[in-house]
């Protein structure tokens, strides 16, 4: 981690403590401690296990994608990728630092930059697609509840959906209409010449064109390997399911055994969509507020509501940050590549048979 990243991490931890402190302003510490000591540790362990499975399944996805194309990739090296992603997502606005950090982590284990970028982009496409699908389901089930409880929060949910949906549309354009996408890049970057040097704009456009080509090549390859694609989609579905179930198991740990698991899961999906549009790393402040407002009808005890929010935030945000710090200190195993000549021959055949439309 750079010095700047360390400073941001410290600031985020301080800000998080401040938010926690503000949430506890009207709660007696003695009551909070009593509620904590009465937690069902079994259900709390299940909630923790859900987060571990969430990270573990993403590591499995990385392993599947790398080994299919490049060679033997240890699970230890693959697991580092999502953990490091969680760390840098958590300390950068709009989770923008996760992708570059994953790329660096893959380079450290011997995966070349072009292939690493393509693999991460494909993982990102599937992940975003599953988020949008899950959100649409949650919107149908839980949106009326959110509107009834807080209409203005619903506007943030819709805005978050528009952002995620736009990302998916952009990626699909690259996958199926690369030439149109390149023309669109020229149209979008042309006005920048009025504010930047023409040479710099041209270089930026050329770099984007190169990324479009790399992504297109990898998408064609992945779409031709339907079995692998189906495996990644299924694993991603269960990965997100375990993540979305965390609040439900926290509520069971606090003694709320009669809650509707489907509704709680849908509300969590909507909260995640709200968090995604906050520019502050981790959606700090907005995440805690959204949780308390939406779950207040289920957890009527104010002390337990705050405790549930604290546990949820620690597991879904801070747990990943500290796990990522630990992953930075783990040395990855080197990639054991397949026969390079065989791979190059296969790629030559693919490029000859398939060209952008």
Task: Describe the SSE topology.
Layout: H1 3-23, H2 29-37, H3 41-69, E1 71-72, H4 75-90, H5 98-108, H6 113-149, H7 151-176, H8 178-189, H9 198-224, H10 226-244, H11 246-253, H12 261-275, H13 286-295, H14 302-328, E2 336-337, H15 340-353
Antiparallel strand pairs: 1-2
GO cellular component, one term: plasma membrane
Keywords: Antibiotic resistance, Cell membrane, Lipid metabolism, Membrane, Transferase, Transmembrane, Transmembrane helix
Subcellular location: Cell membrane
What does this entry look like structurally?
It catalyses: L-lysyl-tRNA(Lys) + a 1,2-diacyl-sn-glycero-3-phospho-(1'-sn-glycerol) = a 1,2-diacyl-sn-glycero-3-phospho-1'-(3'-O-L-lysyl)-sn-glycerol + tRNA(Lys). GO terms for molecular function: phosphatidylglycerol lysyltransferase activity. Residues 335-357 are annotated as: Disordered. The protein has 357 residues and is mainly alpha-helical. A two-stranded antiparallel sheet has the order 1-2. The two termini are 41 Å apart. The protein has one domain (40-342). α3 crosses α4, α3 runs antiparallel to α10 (226-244) and α4 (75-90) packs across α14 (302-328). The protein contains 15 helices and 2 strands.
Task: Summarize the model shown.
The protein has helices at residues 3-23, 29-37, 41-69, 75-90, 98-108, 113-149, 151-176, 178-189, 198-224, 226-244, 246-253, 261-275, 286-295, 302-328, 340-353; strands spanning 71-72, 336-337.
